Amino acid sequence: MERISTGWMAACVLGCSLLGCSSLQNPVDLQWVESDQPDYRNSDLWLSLPSRDDASDAIPKRLPEGVAQLSHDSLEVDVFFVHPTMYFRGQHWNAQLDNVRINRATESSPMRLQASAFNIGGRLYAPRYRQAHIGVFTWQDNTSWRALELAYEDVRRSFIHYLENWNNGRGIILAGHSQGSWHVRWLLQEFFDGTALQEQLVVAYGPGFDWYKTDFEQLSFCENAEETGCVCSWMSYGAGFFPAWLGASEATPMCTHPVTWQLEGGNSISDHQGVVLSQMRYAFPSSIEAQIERGILQIEQPQVPFGKILQRNNWHIGDINLFWINIRQNARIRSENFDEMGNIND
């Protein structure tokens, strides 16, 4: 349980930064209600399917030439994306799947702004699931753990449906953010680590949560930009700020630099390829410089107008958007390498 608690403390920092600790809902206000298990044969329970236009198909305005257009199905690779927490206040421990407000927010924010980074020319799948209330990462009681297990059970069922109906032996990229990365780690542990399916893993991206070397028995963390069959994770903070949870355990998180794709050091600012803003607009290439320290990503003041005002202690909200193009290009490179290795093996 010590390993779990460390991660929960990290998410507590996130919850406080997004909501303000004083506004966090009291757990006694929540009811435990288990709605019917989702039937993932229903296409309405998928936020993204390759057979239709979804929020994840959005393309940022003003993208550089050659980045925007990626031919659909040009790679024999699937992406399975698990969205982050969008449930901050409500009546239940887990969000209901028919909650219109949460569904709209999930589509307009993480699916449009984050999942789109992984729309690299393969096929992208993303399930709706009964996500746990943001407070579970702060309260850390038995019911909180139960809420996370319920959320994961949905993600697990959707992934099994995907495997049995759509994968057909294609390479798989797992990606998520925050609570989504929590569930991605469980998928890796249950379905990939030391199993036959590990051979189909292109790469896994789990930003926004602390992952450790001891999380996996055979899976390893990526050490460069071209490696396949490995995992990546990072948590973003302002330079000089180290969250309190970081010293609560002797274990140091693994941190992959989302520009260099190495496990230590920093990046040249010229290698930063730009950010995607909340208006779904590309901007500010060569503006972010960061280095890995104590297992987290330390982001220097952005080199943009009013960068000093924009700088913050917790950059969790920008884990993907600050590096949107670097991530997109990297996922494409690893997928192409995986395809080439598959052709050689064939």
Strand order of the largest sheet: 1-3-2-4-5-6
| Rg (CA only) | 19 Å
General shape: globular
Query: Which structural class best describes the helix and strand composition?
Result: alpha/beta
Number of structurally distinct domains: 1
- Overall pLDDT level: 90
Largest β-sheet summary: 6 strands, mixed
Strand content: 5-15%
Flag low-confidence runs.
Answer: 1-22
Instruction: Output the number of helix runs.
Output: 7
For the record, give the distance between the C-alpha atoms at the N and C termini, rounded to a whole number: 44 Å
Q: Helices and strands, in N-to-C order?
A: HEEHEHHEHEEEEEEEHH
What is the number of beta strands?
Answer: 11
Give the structure's gist in a few sentences:
It contains seven helices and eleven strands.
Structural features, described:
- By secondary structure, the chain is of the alpha/beta class.
- The protein has one domain (2-345).
- Helix content is 29%, strand content 13%.
- It contains seven helices and eleven strands.
- The protein has helices at residues 2-19, 100-113, 136-139, 142-167, 179-192, 307-310, 324-345; strands at residues 46-48, 77-82, 123-127, 171-176, 201-205, 230-232, 236-238, 275-277, 281-283, 290-293, 296-299.
- Strands 1-3-2-4-5-6 form a six-stranded mixed β-sheet, with helices on both faces.
- The longest helix has 26 residues, at 142-167.
- The radius of gyration is 19 Å and the shape is globular.
- The N and C termini lie far apart (44 Å).
